[in-house]
Amino acid sequence: MAGEKSEFAFSLRHISKRFGPVLALDDISLTVRRGSIHAVVGENGAGKTTLMRVLYGAISPDSGQIEIDGRAERIPNSAVAISKGVGMVSQHYAVIPELTNLQNLMLGSEPSRWVNPPALKSRAESLATKMSFQFDWDSPSSELSPAGAQKLEILKLLWRNSRILILDEPTAMLSPADGDALFASLITLVAGGATVVLVTHRIPEVMQFCERVTVLRGGKWIAEKTVNDLNPTQLASLIVGDGLPTVEVTTRSTEIQGVPALTATNVSIQGDRGNLAVEGASFELRAGEVVGIAGVDGSGQRELFQALLGVRVLKTGSISLGDTRAEALTSARRIASGLRIIPEDRHEEGVVNEWSLEENSILGLQRLPDFSLRGAIDLKSRRGWTERVADRFATKRGSTKQSMASLSGGNQQRFVVARALESGGTVLLAFQPTRGLDLAASARIFEAFRLATQEGRAVLLVSFDLDELLLHCDRILVMNRGRLTLATTKTREALGDLMVAA
Amino acid sequence: MKWRLVALIAGCLVVLAIAVAVAGKSPAEALSTLLKGSFGTTMARTGTLQEMTPLLFAGIGVFLALRAGLFNIGIEGQFLLGAMTATYAGLRGPGGPFGILLAILAGAAAGALWALPAALIKAYRNGHEVITTIMLNNVAAAFTTWVVAGPGKAVEAGSPTSANLSPSLAIGHIDLGGVSVSYGLLGGFVLVGLVWWWLGRRVSGYEFRVTGANARAARAAGIDVSRNYLQAMLLSGAIGGLGGAIQVLAYEHRFYDSFSPGYGFDSLGVALLAGAQAWILIPAAGLFAVLAKGGTALDIFGVPKGITIMVLGMVILVVAAVRYRREATSE
């Protein structure tokens, strides 16, 4: 092979990795052809990200070999991976908001000690032009949208001359239009000889943009196929395996007759930058229905959610919980009146990572009579409650005393969702409740939402995943730059139009 | 990874031995002097327990604020204000148990009041408590000096000091085989128990800890974060002031310039050693007291007292290394 370029960009051979008792990767091989987009798919915990982190040098495998351009390589850390032309954009962007876009672009690979801005800027500009991206290099990155941050991350790889680009769930935070634009630029890249590995759980992306696909399940290699030989259903069953959960799309009555559970009238909310984040929003959530809020990230969903929860004040308008006026109530009072929350970011808002499951099990519910007896915590009932919450969605765990941090991300999310669902209440506010969950787990959560509505509860759901909203919501509201409209036609295209219409 | 810890401790001991040797003494002798100075006689033991009392109270104050996520460096100033206020309340007020209670309450109130500006600035303007409390420490030092050198100075005194309190205002002690243990110190043990119970068993204590562990999660859980910050600083200040009052009523019976040799600052180390466990405050305050008391003996023996500060620094280093390593590996 020496001297002659291999047809393959890289190959991972017989990679195994064990974390404690868990065999995260079990003898997995992956070979990717140069100049292609190769998908690695699977549910949460399938090992997709772990496998790619092995190639990126962030995890050292227990056994197995790595070849890049046909040469055997040892990759002890990411610096070596980068020097071999391997780059990775992880799910959580590493853009530092305080730095300018140019500084972020160079971060970690400044060309020399003496930085020469004009020359750097012209190189940055030429890279961006090649990808048809546009950046104001001197403005702070805090002003970037999620899509902008993603583009900057990809440029960062090109800045470092990466020829193998690993993208981990790149469209998770993007609108459909931004997602399509991303793939258009990836196609440009591979046409120029780069290789892209796409880690994803979204089947449509794979079908539309990828050449080949490798399926992992539970740390094992399941299949590798050419995408053209597959249909979406076959791919889904490869991903989920035999235990395909029956996603019961219950036929829903189009006319929901329940009483109003949550009403917002002409709500306007000030954003952090002094702008109006939400403008004149009105809606009625009735007992027994699941209502979704679609929209490009940053359209005001977050501010609306916070105002409903009571941690952001209304500028105008009113909110009612049942027939109680709620806009002047504290969050604690709203929770006492039946509001339950699945917050957006579980690490930042949903749990205390270092604490035990028991301590986390009453977070947000601590003042409810079930858990507090004249101000005292009922430790015994808390233990039983923790078990009930953990068992609701079969959270994989040891004892109830173990720390939240010792659970995997998916299991933490199961816990947070179960905590909100099992504790009664009349209205459930959920912000991206299935973020980080696989198909089967997501399906079970929506099944649980459906059950809750049959008991007369109401669910308001913010999501960036149109398919999820279309499949599970009785009605869909679309948020577009702070304005809320009801979608009358429930199709991807109609929603997409409403999301970006001027 | 046990060997790393052993290596760390061994390294610390070697550095200390070298430091003692540089001072021109034998390390073994220095150690025995230190232990004799703090444990050797009943008087030494009494002195160590006395030294422990202010460290324990101030340590509890710092610990409590830390549980809500605030670093109350102002405990020194709150301690001083508490001591001074308790003294003058004792001088003006009635004698006997009721007078003691009044002086204690006045001291605690003064400590809380001294923390109030920092508390308000933190809770409602998000100004960092470390900056504001450091400033208030300087104000407290200057203010108490002025009071005790000017309007509050005892008429007959030659140095800046208050008059002595009436003996009926002295907090008593029990005698354990010649070692006297003040009820003030026992009160500190009780307070540790109360803090443990409140934080672990009460909903309000739980909310207090959530605020410290993750303020955003606290907000999402319907907890009033600003109110908890306010409460944390005021409670912490009150306990600091209480410590000052106990110091006056149990041991000093008057207030004077440079009343505290830095109990407030040492108590930051006590609280850091305790981490999240209230009961560790007791051995931690004990350790600091042993080193302070033994350090005086070392000084007489000819080894600079500063060496005990090195010991404390190393203890904190080792504890921090162990704790953060455990946190890092539990992720």
General description of the model:
With 502 residues, chain A is an alpha/beta fold. Chain A has two domains: 8-240, Rossmann fold; 260-500, Rossmann fold, CATH 3.40.50. Chain A contains 17 helices and 22 strands. Chain A has helices spanning 48-55, 78-83, 101-106, 117-130, 146-159, 176-191, 203-209, 232-240, 301-309, 331-336, 346-350, 357-361, 379-392, 409-422, 439-454, 466-472, 492-500, and strands at 8-19, 22-33, 37-41, 63-68, 71-73, 86-89, 164-168, 195-200, 212-217, 220-226, 260-270, 276-286, 290-294, 316-321, 324-325, 339-342, 372-373, 376-377, 427-431, 458-462, 475-480, 483-486. In chain A, strands 6-7-8-3-9-10 form a six-stranded mixed β-sheet, with helices on both faces. In chain A, strands 16-19-20-13-21-22 form a six-stranded mixed β-sheet, with helices on both faces. In chain A, helix 14 (409-422) runs parallel beside helix 15. Chain A is globular, with a radius of gyration of 24 Å. Chain A starts with 7 loop residues before the first strand and ends with a helix. Chain B has a domain at 53-276. Chain B has helices spanning 2-22, 27-40, 42-67, 75-92, 96-125, 129-149, 183-201, 203-213, 215-220, 225-252, 263-274, 281-301, 306-330; strands at residues 173-176, 179-182. The two termini of chain B are 16 Å apart. Chain B has 13 helices and two strands. With 331 residues, chain B is mainly alpha-helical. The mean pLDDT of chain B is 91. Helix content of chain B is 76%, strand content 2%. In chain B, helix 4 (75-92) crosses helix 11 and helix 12 (281-301) packs antiparallel against helix 13 (306-330). Chains A and B meet through helix 10, helix 11 and strand 18 of A and helix 8 and helix 9 of B.
